[in-house]
Design brief:
Length: 372
């Protein structure tokens, strides 16, 4: 590649979340190889602080009028034709209007679909199915989970030759070091009691109320503490719910943590209670940190984990999740063996080096889909 390529990335939000953290991983790794222009549809840009200094990454101000689709499409089209990036990269449903504005593929287009909000947790919305089917039929579509790949092929009816399965990856070496108790205690986490930990946004689809109910079962049977790492709109509601369940002295809310590798190795069990996921980075990080995982059976969670861990992937029921957590806490040797198996699988299958190679080809245009 003789000249540096310009990539225009469109996110519904550029606050810290799975797709944004993956972008940060990629941009930091590739360094000066690409110029990145970033659009945050809601104006929130918290993930910018995770980018390394000196990267050619610029927030792009674009006039967006809520509820004015045609006006927005004209503005997006004007921006695309004015900037002429080498690649338009849209992220999830919230950026679909940019794909619509690029209707003739004047700009080569890569769409990345990571999953759904609570409105599509249980079923696909027909209007969105048809929009994806029509708008993305001539785009390259990246899917990080096997369930999403099947959905795009069988429900959205996108041409299979245009679908690209690229699993997420993490820096396994980063999470292989011991945790930091001094750091943890500064956040209110105390040694000596088993820790059930969760990492993620405090949002509806994560259903952390289910985890509180599950943890109530755990805490009734043995001493333990629940550590929720992340921030989000449900913080106040979750604090109130913990208090109502008699758990306020046993639940720690740390807020956002840009260095989860300092906490994850301290967890006795990593827990995930979501209604909807596909391939969450938090689970991959927990695997890399040699943690056993108790999780709801959503997305690719079951196939991501080592075989030894799969009996602890359960239906979306707080009692079952609580039993899974309690079983792992009650047998530290078994939990340790499961954690080591997870770490070995993370290194073999999900190390970020595999992901970097795939995205380099995508960003260079080498895997552009065949078009009719």
């Amino acid at each position: 590649m003789s000249e540096r390529r310009t990539l225009l990335h469109v996110f519904s939000t550029f606050d810290v979340g799975g797709p944004q953290i993956r972008f940060v991983q990629l941009a930091n790794h590739f360094g000066e190889r690409y110029q990145h222009l970033i659009v945050a549809m809601d104006g929130r840009t918290g993930a910018m602080t995770r980018l390394l200094p000196g990267l050619d990454a610029e927030l792009l101000p674009v006039a967006i009028t809520k509820g004015e689709t045609l006006k927005n499409l004209r503005e997006f089209r004007r921006t695309l034709l004015q900037l002429r990036p080498d690649l338009l990269v849209t992220s999830n449903w919230g950026a679909i209007e940019w794909a619509m504005a690029d209707f003739d593929r004047a700009i080569p287009h890569l769409h990345m679909e990571d999953g759904f909000g609570p409105e599509e947790a249980e079923r696909q919305l027909l209007r969105r199915v048809w929009t994806r089917r029509l708008v993305l039929r001539r785009s390259a579509v990246m899917l990080p989970s096997l369930k999403l790949f099947s959905l795009a092929r069988d429900v959205w009816k996108l041409p299979p030759r245009n679908l690209l399965y690229v699993p997420n990856g993490v820096d396994c070496a980063r999470f292989s070091t011991p945790g930091d108790w001094d750091f943890a205690q500064g956040l209110g986490i105390h040694p000596g009691v088993p820790i059930v930990g969760a990492v993620g946004g405090l949002r509806v689809e994560k259903n952390l109320f289910r985890l509180l109910d599950a943890f109530r079962t755990v805490s009734a049977a043995r001493p333990a503490q629940l550590v929720l790492v992340g921030e989000g709109p449900l913080l106040t509601d979750l604090r109130t719910a913990a208090e109502a369940r008699g758990l306020s002295g046993h639940v720690v809310f740390t807020g956002a943590c840009p260095v989860p590798e300092r906490l994850l190795p301290l967890f006795s069990v990593f827990a995930l209670s979501s209604d909807t996921e596909q391939m969450p980075l938090s689970v991959l990080e927990a695997m890399a940190a040699s943690r056993a995982v108790a999780a709801t059976d959503v997305g690719d969670i079951r196939v991501m984990l080592a075989e030894e861990n799969r009996p602890f992937v359960v239906a979306c029921d707080p009692s079952l999740l609580g039993e899974a957590i309690l079983t792992l806490l009650s047998d530290p040797q078994k939990a340790g063996a499961i954690g080591r198996a997870n770490a070995a699988r993370a290194v073999a299958v999900y190390d970020q080096s595999h992901m970097f190679g795939a995205y380099r080809r995508l960003f260079d245009g080498d895997l552009a889909p065949n078009r009719d």
